[in-house]
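New to this. Please check this record:
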Amino acid sequence: MKERAISVENDVLQLREEVKKLEIQHRVFMSSMFVKTPWKVVVEYFRVFRNGLTKECAVRRDPDSATRTSYSNESYLQWGFLSSTMASDVVGGSGLGVDQMMNDWKWISLLHEDFTTQLVCLEAGPGDLMIARTKVCVTFSLDTVQYAFPHLINAENWPLARKLIGQRLCMKGSTYFQWDTESRRVVSVQYDIDMLTPMLELLGNMDDVSCVFDNAHVTSACGLVADTSLTI
């Protein structure tokens, strides 16, 4: 009787998980059906990625496919949004394609605690370019220093690292979305975030700021340094 009860309980849990997956698939499908305009896509982009990816977003291989990548439930919704609004070869911050864009969001989210990005205003640029003005806030943790600023993990620079850990920086930024009217998809997403100004306000002098960014794995515009591979 006890074994049967356990079996029934497991079946119920499995059914709940299947229902959850179907609900997510339905939401992804519905998101692909909304009327796509550049304004709507950009606004939805910042709603979907307001807090980056969840901590459970670690990419894993789908057991049903040797090539397809699967994500946690919430991140699958984010991936679905990108797949329905971005070109398959969309140019992102560090490469091409939706999966690369998801990977960019992954390391940003893992490096920074309490990540938030807020759309402040949206402007029409030349041609079909959309310019989003944003406010980005992050909290520096030991992981942030260890993986983004590893050169600070030594006796000489540790005092600087201690000044950063636990601090919350709010930065002004701009994200540029290039819209393709024929495919009705975004073909490029480039961002520029000013980390330099709040870093200078925090540390108080350019010598310390220069030390922080010299040999760092990220730039003062929050981009990944070329030829740098972050392993988390």
User: Anything to note?
Assistant: The radius of gyration is 21 Å.
